[in-house]
Design goal:
Elements (H helix, E strand, L loop, with lengths): L7 E6 L11 H15 L3 E4 L19 H11 L4 E4 L2 E2 L5 H14 L5 E5 L4 H6 L7 H19 L6 E2 L4 E2 L15 E5 L6 H8 L2 E5 L3 H18 L7 E8 L5 H13 L4 E6 L5 H15 L3
Parallel strand pairs: 1-2, 1-11, 2-3, 4-5, 5-8, 8-9, 9-10, 10-11
Antiparallel strand pairs: 6-7
Helix pairs in contact: 1-9, 2-3, 6-7, 8-9
Length: 295
């Protein structure tokens, strides 16, 4: 147990190049989501990409639009929480993005995370004609979006006039079902800006799995930002993204969860690296969930 919360395990679906794709995608997604829920996974995630990312395959590999897909997953699941890890700030107008995320929360019965970050994959943005400003501007837009998000989810519709965003009437009805609102997760490890935004606005953060010294260093920076912002460090859910592939055994996954729990991580999210990992998920998921519940 960490801070009174049991260690959680999440699953991220990152590939759709399954046998029989694209005709098999609908059934494959439903089967994977059902298996994850039955095994006891706490959360189910997608990437927010339009091209496949370089280290998983060529850009032309199948890739689904995230929020449409999450709406489908909301309909075929009952308990598991749903989210995007993470939405790139440049891909949708922030007002529409917030409306989209709110819709997901309502239709999932209040089971959503709102994952957001500054975006990085310039090729897909340029490829689809999406403006991709420099990193500094994207981070400014990210902070303004977080401010608008908090305002809209509080029910406040006063005009927002920022440096980049201008919303004359930021109305979003119906309101989300999650209380006080869907968990806001900011992805990224930038110490000067991104982790400062986590301390000021987020309910959760996400780091990449790496060495213990790397992770402890990032957590230390986040704690300092929380102290400066007057924020309780333990109010932020700490998540880590890793991988589940053909070489990963149940024992390996349990050992990783134990190490992460010792380092102060509360939620380990694994990307399913195999194009069709249903059998693997069914075989090791229940073993791992049963073992980590007592951490």
């Amino acid at each position: 147990m960490i801070g009174g919360a049991t260690m959680k395990l999440g699953l991220q679906i990152v590939r759709f190049d399954w046998p029989g794709s694209p005709g098999s995608i609908r059934t494959g997604l439903a089967d994977l989501a059902g298996a994850a829920e039955d095994a006891g996974f706490d959360s189910l995630w997608l990437m927010d990409h339009f091209f496949q990312i370089p280290w998983l395959g060529p850009a032309t590999d199948p890739m689904l639009e995230a929020y449409t897909t999450l709406g489908f997953l909301a309909a075929v699941t009952r308990r598991i929480r749903l989210g995007v890890l993470v939405t790139g700030i440049v891909y949708r107008h922030p007002g529409i993005l917030i409306k989209t995320a709110t819709t997901l929360d309502v239709l999932s019965g209040g089971r959503s995370y709102f994952g957001i970050g500054a975006a990085w994959y310039e090729r897909e943005a340029r490829g689809l004609g999406v403006p991709f400003p420099p990193a500094g501007q994207r981070l400014e837009q990210l902070e303004e979006t977080l401010q608008v998000l908090r305002q809209m989810w509080s029910g406040e519709s006063t005009a927002y006039d920022g440096k980049h965003l201008h919303l004359a009437e930021p109305v979003s009805q119906p309101a989300p079902l999650a209380r006080p609102h869907p968990s806001i997760l900011i992805g990224g490890e930038g110490e000067a800006k991104t982790l400062r935004l986590v301390a000021r606005y987020a309910d959760a953060c996400n780091f990449f799995a790496g060495s213990r010294s790397h992770l402890q260093g990032k957590l230390g920076v986040l704690r300092r930002h929380c102290d400066e912002a007057g924020r309780d460090f333990d109010a932020i859910e700490r998540t880590v993204l890793g991988q589940l592939d053909a070489r990963t055994s149940a024992a390996d996954l349990i050992a990783t969860c134990r190490r992460l729990a010792q380092d102060g991580i509360q939620h380990y999210i694994v990307s399913l690296m195999e194009p069709d990992g249903l059998r693997r998920l069914e075989s090791i998921g229940p073993q791992v969930i049963g073992a980590i519940g007592d951490l």
